[in-house]
From TrEMBL:
Residues 49-99 form a coiled coil. This is Uncharacterized protein. SUPFAM superfamilies: Outer membrane lipoprotein (SSF58042). Residues 1-15 form the signal peptide. It comes from Patella caerulea (Rayed Mediterranean limpet). Keywords: Coiled coil, Signal. It comes from the Eukaryota. Gene3D superfamilies: 1.20.5.190.
Length: 100
């Protein structure tokens, strides 16, 4: 320690804190590595979460507007009526063919 102080006092040696950028991130004044990607990750995730939440709400509204269940019930009712009408027409046609 004494030798390093003497070298600094000589003026030939300058103190070098080292690089401020590393592969992982930048060095803070305390010497800790700061990861800039990790600081923005939380914000980015929250933003993405908000977008997904609004998209889900919009999709729920669209599904409710479609009323698919009611339409399917109506279609089933119509098909049943058509089958009944078709059976009646087939019986009448058989009756006419038998008379002819």
């Amino acid at each position: 320690m004494v030798l390093s102080l003497l070298m600094i006092l000589c003026g030939d040696v300058e103190s070098n804190p080292g690089p401020t950028n590393t592969r992982q991130g930048t060095l803070s004044k305390t010497g800790e590595v700061v990861y800039p990607e990790k600081e923005n990750v939380g914000h980015d995730l929250m933003t993405m979460f908000q977008f997904l939440k609004s998209d889900i709400a919009e999709l729920k509204n669209q599904v409710n507007e479609l009323n698919i269940k009611e339409e399917v019930i109506e279609i089933k009712k119509n098909v049943k009526e058509l089958k009944t009408a078709n059976e009646k027409l087939n019986k009448r046609m058989d009756n006419f063919e038998n008379r002819a």
